Amino acid sequence: MVKENRWLMAKKNGDAVAGATAAPVADSLGQIREIILGEFMRASDAHFRKMQASFDAFKQETDARLSELEERISFVKEDGEVSKGSLQEALDTSQAEFEKQVKELGSKLKNDIKTLHEDKVDKSSIGEVFIQWGEQVKSR
Fold this sequence. Notes:
Elements: H1 2-79, H2 84-119, H3 123-139
Helix pairs in contact: 1-2
């Protein structure tokens, strides 16, 4: 019974020591991550939010056009006055505009991805940051 209690106390003390050393290490890693990638991550996040807003606006516009087209179809069913040709023309116009916007959005996304890829942090930049960080630590 006494041996078990000693073992449990030793285990609890060991866990406490391990937890105490893990917290500073995690904090240091967070600081290093912020130094190396912080600005890039914030810029990427802002760029992603901007792209998401553009996509949301595009979706709203597309939904509005779809709703308008559905109203035209409804009108044709109710009145029968609109000719099939004019409805097809409206559909073709809407489809052409939609395809144009999809191509523009695709081109913009490709350019944005290319820009993000070109602006990413490379290995030499990371090495330089570590060297500078090491020099700062040594000078303290």
